[in-house]
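Appendix C reproduces, verbatim, an entry submitted by the partner laboratory led by Prof. M.T., so that reviewers can inspect both the input and the predicted structure.
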Amino acid sequence: MKSPKSNSAELLRSRLSSFCARRWLAVALLLVAGPTLWGAAFRFQPVNEKSLGLWEGAQPVLVYNHGVLSKAGVPADRARSTYIHPLYGLDGEVLTDDFPKDHYHHRGLFWAWPHVKVGGKEYDLWMLKGVEQRFERWLRQETNGPAAVLAVANGWYVGERKIMDERVCVTVHPARQDSRAVDLEFIWTPLGEAITLAGAEGKSYGGLTLRFAPRTNTVITTPLGNDSQDLPMTRLPWADLTAQFPGVPQPSGAAIFVPESHPDFPPMWLTRHYGVLCLGWPGVEAATFPPDKPIRCQYRVWIHRGSVSGDQLRAAYRDYNGADPRK
């Protein structure tokens, strides 16, 4: 008879074997839903020994930083890895920022929590205090299908002790005329003992975060409308930031969409007009996750050229939920 531990390991292997595979159905449905500019080949290519870039034809799409990056003039304890920067707009403009002077710990498109508790001790993955994410290996780098797929195995480490297994799958769809969808799938598995996660008190940030590059004329749009006020601890299915970025004649921006299948849908958010969209899940109320049981979350980053209305964002969000094979 197999032990409970053996059965748990087999279940984990089974779930991870389909990692990223569900994205292919979403890709096919997206291609059917409307015209694309598909035809320019995707390609992965190292930018340097610490970063892997993705291009569609001659256009840069994103860079995944797997090595530990630092910056002159920034405190050494702000060095980090396992995040996306730059994330590019459709005309090559850089949408994200890294090591911004107002928040050195912000890093492009990243995922982190300010409260991580394990074994009776608390750490801060957001500020990189006592715990850090480390790249372990590539799982997939594919460009020969209807989309580019990058899958990565990371770990959360307290010293040399690995407390969380992290799998990240990034599926980049071909550019349409004025938009591109980038789908993210995460599987986090606490190792050996339970892990408690929580967002920042009174703000709720903690989870997927998108820090935007310097820009002008910032407009944040949510299902609540265009509001010049920041929104802390607000439950939303999506949020968009549009602005004028350097180097391009028209505005552009990006939204984060959360599928209806997400745990505790809709999650809390924090929006900041200085240039950040922060998901807050599980939010300000801590949640404890049992050992060896995977936690799965999916998101879409919807990049667009030009300003977009609330109706356009709602339509794009409906397209995303329609492409979700679990809906």
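The CA atoms of residues 41 and 57 lie 5 Å apart. Additional entries are available on request from the coordinating office.
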